Amino acid sequence: MGKNKQGFTLLELIMVIVIIGILVTFAAPVFIKTVERSRTAEAMQLLGQLRLAQMRYYAEWAATTASFSNLDVDQPTGKFYTFTLSSVTDPTQVVASAQRNNVANPGYGSYTISISGTGNLACSGGNKCPPIHA
Question: What total number of domains does the chain contain?
Fold first, then answer.
């Protein structure tokens, strides 16, 4: 009588592990980039709200403020960015910025996204900046 074989051989298991490793090697960088882009999109959306609040303040006082308590929005809090305001009399200058910290941030480092009163976005610092679009 023949033996009834069940299960997988060691070679088959090793081949499956190698194939999974190759797939992860290609998928991980794409996943990390996608996650960072989503975090950047959130920061840009919050910067847009801060810019609008700064422009409402500017319409009344002819200057922007560096204090969140003077605006009609709350200070954004989050794990990935620290938001600051700029007090300027020229609305074409930077009115708010978001400093990216290094929490769960492989490959990018600490960078700053700034927005001017006219809505122009700029990124500086870090190893590289993620793509930003208005």
Answer: 1
In a domain, 134, yes or no: no
Q: Which residue has the tokens 């954004």?
A: 76
- The model's pLDDT over 90-130, given as tens digits with 9 standing for 90+, comes to 989 999 999 988 776 677 778 899 999 999 999 888 777 77
Tokens of 4: 């009834």
Q: Which two tokens stand for residue 80?
A: 């990935």
Residue 36 lies in a domain: yes
- Identify whether the C-beta of residue 86 lies closer than 8 Å to the C-beta of residue 98: no
State the residue range of the domain holding 53: 11-125
At residue 66 the predicted structure's pLDDT band, cuts being 50, 70 and 90, is very high
Q: Examine residue 88 and state whether it is found in any structural domain, yes or no.
A: yes
Q: How far apart are CA 100 and CA 83, in angstroms?
A: 9
* Pair 114, 48: CB distance under 8 Å: no
Cα distances (angstroms) measured from residue 90 to each of 54, 59, 70: 12, 12, 18
Q: Domain containing 69 — which CATH number?
A: 3.30.700
Of 79, 117, 115, 110, the C-alpha closest to 130 is 110
